[in-house]
Fold this sequence. Notes:
about 180 residues, five-stranded parallel β-sheet
Amino acid sequence: MIVISDAGPLIALAKIGSLPVIFQLSSMVLIPPAVFEETVVAGLRLGLADAESISSYHAGGQLLVVPVQPTRLELPEEVDPGEREGILLALQEQADWLLVDDLRARAVAEAIFASQGVKTRVRGTLGLLVEAFRQGVLTRSETIERLRALEAHPDIWLHESLIRWAIDAISQTRD
């Protein structure tokens, strides 16, 4: 499975100590240079623990930085550089998943993938954790614990109602 990630899901998972989950679903994750700059280079410059965690997966060869090839495809200006490169890298690599949390970037990605006939699925941090539960990587209690950790973390910008929805969905799922 080819997984491309934007900065948001990597940072969120690293902040709650759950970065290994992404690598239990996919042995290798690809990121574009802009995401590496945002998550590792800038983060290490600021001394952030989540940047150190992400950097260790890069050093271990599980998180690969892949250059984005030039393209004529135009993306809206409101999509930031990491999201833009992530969408283009997902097209380039024919990824199975693109991980991105930003709502506008998700909508742009889905529209582009549909117009290009690409089967890449767009997921975010919450969708990744729910998928980890569905695949048996995480138990119900582990998943809910991680969702609550996201909810309690003041510098993770995921809407509280979405986190609540995910907790409710996992709580009501049959074993």
